[in-house]
Amino acid sequence: MPQFRVSDMTCSGCVKAITGAIQDLDAAATVDANLDTKQVAIASTVPAAALAEAMRDAGFTVEINQAQAKRGLNGSQ
Ligand SMILES: [Cu+2]
Description:
By secondary structure, the protein is of the alpha+beta class. It has helices at 12-25, 48-57, 66-71, and strands at residues 3-6, 30-34, 39-43, 62-64. It has one domain: Alpha-Beta Plaits (2-Layer Sandwich).
């Protein structure tokens, strides 16, 4: 699944905001966020670029983890 680095994700409120933004796009998406590593893994049928855009729209700084994305089904760009 696509992985993202969200450098300004600092608390559980950020995780809730990110999860909400993703689930607005895909209600069935699963968001696995790690506050220590700032990594967010998202299981969704939506392409990684669109997931990143949704998080950016919610106010976060997002980088797609390309090494992981290339292995994912939806990560190719
Ligand atoms: Cu926060």
